[in-house]
Structure formats: structure tokens, C-alpha cells
Amino acid sequence: MIAFVRLRTKMFARRNLVFIKIIQTSIQWLFFAWHAIWHKGDSPEKENTYNGSIMDRKIEKKFWTPKKIAYILGGVAVAAGIIYQIGFADHRSTMNVEKDRLSIATVSTGEFTDYILVSGQIEPAQTFFLDAVEGGMVAEVIRESGALVNKGDTILTLTNSNLQLDVMSRETMLYEQINNLRQTRLFLDQNDLNQQGQLAEIDYQISLLEPQYKRFKELHEKKLVSDREFEEVKEQYEYNVKRKQLTYRSYRSDSLARSYQLQQLRQSEGRMNASLNGVGQILNNLVIKAPIAGQLAMEQIEIGQAINPGSRYGQIDILDEFKVRVPIDELYLPRIGQGLRGKFTLSGVDHELEIMKIYPTITNGRFEVDMKFTGESPKGIRRGQSVRIRLELGDSEQSLLLPTGGFFKDTGGNWVFVLNAAGNAEKRNIRLGRKNPEFYEILEGLIEGEKVIVSGYENFGNNEILQLK
User: Fold this and answer.
1) Which of 64, 74, 155, 455 has the lowest CB atom count within 10 Å?
2) pLDDT band at residue 437, thresholds of 50, 70 and 90?
3) What is the DSSP string of 277-326?
4) What percent of the chain is modeled with pLDDT above 70?
5) Is 162-284 the same fold as 97-113+397-468?
6) What kind of architecture, by CATH, is found in domain 97-113+397-468?
7) What fold characterizes domain 115-153+308-394?
8) Can you give the pTM of this predicted structure?
9) How much is the average pLDDT of 408-433?
């Protein structure tokens, strides 16, 4: 590149030297022409007379001699050349380029679709992750990765002695608490029965004393019994009536408290029974079963391997429906929304997709979206398969189009080399709009049918004219 620049500098210096020599020569020709026109001289010559004497006389010369005309025409031609070079000649820098090494495209009018090409990966639409609820050592591997499982199929069995001892201890403690609750409830029931027995005894005494009291009262009014006998019966009767009132009031208060206590006891007993069942289920977590039907995807697990609680060891994919997970450059995040459509071709058939979910978290300059099939999922696709998607960012419209090429990285889309009628390429300023992987949208500077060099310009330097060979 440096040698090329030096060569161009030498050529430019030589051209300037020639131009100076032309000017000098032109000035000389003009001077000779001026001198020939304005300084006409006379030369004396000898001539014989009639009398044989010799005498000098002035001889007239022609003004428009061939020599003068040649001088004048030469000066005019040189002056015209100088004027042309100064005012009209093309002094732009040029370069010879082999046409076969260039990529030339034609400006055309067509439908511009604003889209980008992205790569997506096929994933099941629904996935159930398998996480270890309880840790332990792998005792047996029953289902291998890739196997189709039904709901309830056993996948792994684990062993954990410490967990078993802990479960037994919890169960014992819960049984003791449940027995204490039952004893408390039994005590409350016995207290209720005792109070009911007291009320029954009081009612019995009243039923015996009330007729006697009424009879003695009639006899006392007739003076047939003494006052002392009547008062004894009366006191016993009134005592039992008051005793019934007090006992009933206490029973009613105790009944309300006992009802609330019994409700609490039943709730506590229910929770303890649920805890007892939950503790019993802890050991069932050592037998890992498939929660749904699908295809098992699991890391390599060996017998005797330790699995920690909460660790993820696999997943089950539902194979009835698929989606596509697509990473997209963060540059397009403001233009991506739900409902945007895309398509890809598989086995010669086009399949349409639609964005259903956007993950705004950006990682390594990219964010992800989930796309669903607008129709049926393609037959024969597999989890993890990659597809090339044409994701549309806007509606199509008629525009002036220029095919994409390497020129953009050298010019930024601000100018291009356009072929002229002479077959050479001239530098021209343009303005581009939107871009897709196939075309640029032309806003200014080009018209339909013009031919443009779209390959890279890195070897053209600052030249403004390319002479194509």
C-alpha cells in the first residue's frame, strides 16, 4: 500500500512538471506570434535602373505569410489547451482496476422486508425439572437418560440411614403428642359427663322434693304440719333449685370453653396426623418417580453416587409440542415485541413462528425470546436441533434497493463507486436507510438501473475515478 502511494505521488509530480513545460512553451509561442504581428521590419535590396546605376529601395512584404499563420494557430491551440486544462479538464485522481475482480450490482425497485437472520434451538414447549427433594446415595438406576417414561414410573432409588433415623424419631415424637392430645380430649369429655351427672342428680332431687314441698305447703296452710317440718322441706327444695341454677350456669360456661378446646385439639391432632403422614412421605422421596409422562433427559448417574438435596439431576420433556429458544443481539431489543413473526425452512417446507415470550435479561450482549409454531410442529424435529429463522421486524414496502456488499465497512454507506457511460466508475455520495441481510434501502444518490461496485473498497485509496479494464 505504501509503494502504491509513493508511485501515485511520483506520477502526480511528473504530471505537474509536464503541465509547467506546456505553459512555458505556450508563452514562447504566444510571444513569437505577437512579435511577428506587431514588429514588421523592412530589408533593403539592390535593384537596377534604366540608366544602369545601382540604387537601394524598400520592398513590401506580405503580412499573412504561412509562417505567421502557423505561429498564430499554434499559439491559439496552446492557449486553448491551457484554458481547457485549467477550467474544464478532469483533475480527479484515477486508478486502473481489473473489472473481473469486482462485484457489480444493479440498483432496482422492489419490496423491502425489514428482517434479521437469527439461529434458534428447538426445545419442548413444556419441561418438568427433576430436583432432589432429599439427598442420599444412589442405590439403583432403573431408567436411563433418553427413555420414555409414564407418570409414576420409578427412575432412581436412594438410601439415607441418617434420614431414616430422623424420620423414626419424628414419628415417635408425633405419636406421643397425639396421645397427649387424646388424653386431654378424654379428660374434657369426662368433665362434661360429670357435670351432666351432677345436673341429672339435682333434677332427680328436685323431682322428689317438689311434690313434697307442695304437699307440706298445703298442709301447713291448714295447720296440719308444724312450721319446723314445713321449713325443713322448703329449705331442701329451695337449696336444690338454687344448686341446679348454679350448676347449669357453670356447665354452660364450661361447655363453651370445652367446645373451643375440643376444636383446637381436633385441629392440632389433624396437623400432627398430617405431619406424621409427611414424615412418612419423606422416606418415599428416596424413591424417585416420574411426575409426568415424557422423555427423560438426565445426566450420567452411577450407583453409589451422592445426590445432594435440592440438586437438579434431570428433566422430563413433553414431546407433544415444541418451541424455539432464540438469542438476539441486544441492539434489536427496542424493536422486539410479542407477536412478531418469523419463518424457517425444514426439508423444503416453510414453518411459521411467533414470539410468545421475551426474556429481557441481557447476557454477553444478547437476550432470548421463545417462539411458538403458529401451526402444527414439524414432524421429526428433535430437542436441541438448530434452525435458521428469518425474523421480520416490520411490514414490507416498495423501495429502491441496493444489494449488500463489503463496500459498507469502508464507506459507512455514505458514498459508492457508480459506473458511468464510459465504462468507468465514479465516486458518488449517497444516503442509505434500513438494511436487511440482502439489501440496503436507498434514500438518496442513486436511481433505478445504475450499476454500483458493491465489493470492498480497501484497495482503492482516495481515488475518485476507477478506470475499469
Assistant:
1) 64
2) confident
3) HHHHHHHHTTEEE-SSSEEEEE----TT-EE-TT-EEEEEEEEEEEEEEE
4) 81
5) no
6) Beta Barrel (2.40)
7) Elongation Factor Tu (Ef-tu); domain 3 (2.40.30)
8) 0.51
9) 90
